[in-house]
Design goal:
There is one protein chain. It is built from nine helices and eight strands. By secondary structure, the chain is of the alpha+beta class. It has a single domain, classed as Alpha-Beta Plaits. The protein is globular, with a radius of gyration of 28 Å.
């Protein structure tokens, strides 16, 4: 039995030596043929277009800007009055290629916050033209300085609208608005768009879908969905009704893993907002 065990051990050692020799040769190979490299190499199919071109509306060529202004609590009323003046002037002046889509104050979410959504028909050239004109507008610059004294902080993002969402158009109120913000994992925007292109049909019956956008400049891989409801009760009923439709649960199942974080703001439109 001892002789048999020794022979078995010798066979194992011999086979292991051959394995080590073969492994050494493979490890020493250069280029993509090396087996170690092949274990860690992740081959990605080349995408032939940016996700902004694949997901956005090409027929309108609209660029959007969303602004978040955190206002000193004691200044909110004065801020709203001043902002209404600025918005009305720019919105009605045909020399400026921009228009205010909506203007709100947060109700639930970050308090004493103002949110504005602007549309630039004509894309980046329209935005550039508008900025150049504003820099030369002394009256606007004075209003901007006055507004700055009322703010704690501010942030903006440039957005494109998803091709499968409604274009945000003026609507009568009264409504409350929900801005749902999703921060996605980098590289998942196409997958998100593919799922929501099918899912949006489940959220149209009550005319609650206002607009859907994704960031181009600012925090990237961020999606904003804007919804309108008659009341908090209407919001609850509308959202619950979606779960009764075959297919909505599938959309949620596949999109949740794409999200890093999400936020919901309930907002009240200001008096000058086209979205009431």
């Amino acid at each position: 039995m001892a002789t048999s065990s020794v022979r078995s051990l010798e066979q194992v050692v011999s086979r292991y030596s051959v394995y080590l020799h073969q492994t050494s040769r493979r490890f020493s190979e250069s280029g993509d043929k090396g087996w170690i490299r092949s274990l860690f190499e992740h081959k990605v199919e080349a995408r032939r277009d940016a996700h902004s071109n694949l997901l956005s509306k090409k027929e309108t060529n609209n660029l959007y800007k969303i602004q978040f202004h955190n206002v000193k609590p004691e200044c909110l009323d004065a801020y709203n009055s001043l902002e209404a003046e600025v918005q009305n002037r720019l919105h009605q002046d045909r020399d400026y290629p921009c228009e205010v889509v909506g203007s709100w104050n947060t109700w639930y979410g970050e308090q004493d916050q103002a949110v504005q959504l602007w549309r630039y028909r004509g894309g980046y050239p329209a935005l550039t033209e508008c900025l150049q004109k504003l820099k030369a507008n002394k009256e606007y610059l004075e209003l901007q300085k006055e507004r700055a004294q009322m703010l704690l902080s501010r942030q903006n993002q440039l957005l494109l609208e998803f091709s499968f969402w409604n274009e945000p158009l003026p609507r009568q109120g009264p409504n409350i608005y929900e801005l749902r913000t999703y921060k996605l994992k980098p590289g998942t925007m196409i997958e998100w768009g593919n799922h929501w292109a099918r899912a949006i049909k489940y959220r149209q019956e009550n005319n609650e879908a206002v607009g859907g956008f994704f960031t181009q400049i600012g925090n990237l891989y961020v999606v904003h969905h804007l919804w309108a409801y008659e009341s908090l009760q209407s919001r609850e009923e509308t959202r619950n009704a979606a779960w009764q439709k075959d297919g909505w649960d599938v959309n949620v199942y596949y999109t949740v893993p794409l999200v890093r974080s999400m936020e919901s703001r309930l907002m009240i439109p200001t008096k000058c907002s086209p979205l009431q």
